[in-house]
Every structure is written in structure tokens, then in C-alpha cells.
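$ run holo --ligand "1,6-di-O-phosphono-beta-D-glucopyranose" --emit C-alpha cells
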Amino acid sequence: MPINGFLFDLDGVIVDTAVFHYQAWRRMANQLGFDISHEFNETLKGISRMDSLNLILAHGGMSLSDDRKLELATQKNEWYLELVSQMTPDDILPGVTGFFHDLKKADHADGPITCALGSVSKNARLILERVGMINDFDAIIDGTKITNSKPHPEVFLKGAAELGLDPAQCVVFEDAVAGVEAAKRGGMFALGIGSPDVLTQADLVVPSLEHITVTELLAAVERARGIGY
Ligand code: B16
Ligand code: MG
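-- output --
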């Protein structure tokens, strides 16, 4: 089946706000009397706000009521949004603008390639507006449209469906272990952005979108399929 859809994760692929999430969650944890490390923060990538809070509280050995958890998640999000509000198009990750330019202008042998965002963040639209990329996607699936966090494939299955495509016609761009797993469970080709030592389930891994063109990616999918992936 030809590739006609690209499904992009947001955080860690288009922009990187992991450090903002870390600062805000750490501020909350410190107020509760414990700390979280940078390494621990890595395990929260691609995980929804409430699931992240539950993991952090378990890490700190705390159990709180649902009302208190909602209060904490709301406060964390306010701190996070203060940092997001300072974002500009300069925060788009290296290689992204060139890759999108390439994508829109290229005349692909197997027909046009449309693209969707597949993020579990409820702030995805706001972030895309801040960096000036809200109009670059044909569909936007974010945390307000899904009930299951990655590694559940829902976010990418909905992205493919909104593009009117079969999952096998799509490539997912992901920086997180949970996101790569979601792509594979959804039946898509997974392009990992990061390190092959971490993204072990990905079909192909590049350090950033600076390191691959649309043509190279489509050729890599064909090669991978040719050898039975
Ligand atoms: P929010 P992605 C994810 O975005 C982040 O990787 C993850 O760290 C965060 O907890 C999650 O969004 C929820 O974000 O609090 O803004 O709803 O990688 O799926 O684009
Ligand atoms: Mg991500």
C-alpha cells in the first residue's frame, strides 16, 4: 500500500516543551515535599497529563483524592502555559520547516501526502498557534479528542481516519517510546526521532528531521516493506 499520510507527534517532533513540563511538574512535586529527576521526566513523554500526575504521585509515595489531583493538574498546567506563552516560531525544531516545505512542494509518485497531528496534549492547538504552524495540518487530533493515552493507538488511528486513509498508508513521526508503540499497535510505519537505543520498536530512527527528506523516507518505507517489515 502506498504512503499517503504523515502523522506527526507534537512534543519532541515539531517543538520540544519537555523542559517546560519538567519545570512545572518539578515545582509541583517540590511543593508536595519530593523531587523528580530529569531521567524520571523522560518516562512521562507522550503520557497524558493525568496519567503523568498519577506516575509522579506514585513516585513520591503519595495518594491523593481525585479533587486534589484535579487541583494539582490545573495548577501545573497554569505554570506550563506561562512558559508556552513565550514560544515563537524560533522554537520549531531543526529540520521541521524544511521537511514541511519539501512535503508540500514535492510531486509524489503515489499521489499527494496529507498530514495530521497526533498529540495527547490538550494544549496542542495553542502551541501550534504560538509557533505559526496551525495551518500546516489537514487534521488535528489532540488530547481533547481522545480517551486513551499513548501507547494506545487511538490518537493515530483517529488521525488516519480523519485523513481518510488506512493505517498502512501512514507514517508516524514520534520521539517517545509510548508513541512508537502506539504507531506499531496501530499498524503504521514508525519513524523514530531520537536514538535507536531508546526507540527500539521504531522501523527507522533519525536524530531529527534535518537528517531525512520526504523522498528518502518513502524509499526507506519501501525498502523496509520489501524485506518483510
Ligand atoms: P498537556 P505529545 C505530550 O505531548 C507530552 O509528551 C507529555 O509529556 C504531556 O504530559 C502530554 O502531552 C500532555 O500534555 O498537559 O499539555 O495536555 O508528545 O503527545 O505531543
Ligand atoms: Mg512526543
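-- notes --
The chain has two domains: 5-16+90-225, 18-84.
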